[in-house]
Amino acid sequence: MFTRPLAGVASALYVTVLVGGLYFAVAGLAHGPAWRLTCFVVGLLALLVVERIDRGTVPGLVARALLIHAVAAADGSGLARILFLLVPFAVYLTLGRRAGSLTALAYGSVLVLWTLTRPTDREAVGDLVMFLVGLVLAVAMAAVAVTADAQRARAERLLDEVAALAAADERNRVARDIHDSLGHHLTAIAIQLEKATAYRTRDADVAARAVSDAHGSAREALAEVRRSVSALRADPLSLRTRLAALAARLRTASMSVTSAVSGEEGLGGAEVRDAVYRVAQEGLTNAVRHAGARRVTVTVHFDPDAPRAGGVEVVVADDGIGLPESLDRVSGFGLAGMRERVAALGGTLVLDGPPGRGTTLTARFPAAAEARVPAR
Prior knowledge:
It is a single chain. By secondary structure, this protein is an alpha+beta fold. It is built from 10 helices and 5 strands; from the N terminus they run H-H-H-H-H-H-H-H-E-H-E-E-H-E-E. The radius of gyration is 32 Å and the shape is elongated.
């Protein structure tokens, strides 16, 4: 179990302790050999790197804990002790409530035992009280973050259920419409054909009019079927609504996720709109898992005047770490599946991400999937 909504808090603490420790050293308020200051600075920079690249793994958790203890040991200002609060916080997010609570209890117990060796030291007692309050707040913040993740996951499941129910309800409505309207037209056709058969030898004009009426009813029935099939293919929710919900599910306090749709959605057709959503979904998922980004944007533009190969464009961009040089630009990060989906609709997919300068995923589709299919 892991979530990154409060990762910015840890980074802010590292920077604060780093600046404070350097100030103490420059002002001559901290004493000790130069190598201790060097270890202090290097340890905090390493913590910032771990905070940026780790995604809640146990090795990352161990690295955090070891680095925090090393920084505290090398610190000459005493400011680094606040970083101990981040250990139970990270344990809670990575391993769950029980492990996080036990870690907080262990740290609190060690400090209580240490304070008991100097019960009359007012500063030690004050530090104990403040540290215990900090432990409680750290565990509470982690619990809130985990709860928010659980609620976000539940909201995602509910949204999927709502979409499924909406689609089922629409299909039931269309089925009733088909039964009522098509049944009416078929009954009318049967009556007109029986009438034509009955008057075929007695009155040719009446028989001809009956056949003509039957043809008209058949054309109306065919039109009704086409309208019903078109309604069945329609999206239960608009692309704009689906993308906004997707962005809301992935947005955190430390990562902004926004979406924007411009132009007329109907231009793309149902297949293209679904492919656009899947590309955006995969791009956002990759950004959350791998990019270490603070900001991710999804923009979709429907342009009726664009060339046929670019009538619909979706761009997923982030300000993260870019793409590693070793990444397979053809199939890495799930690109193979995305390329197949886009190519099936006559579109193109481009991934660009210079190291350290973010990543941009761009997909372009024809104005409608049907535009690729020759008329028969």
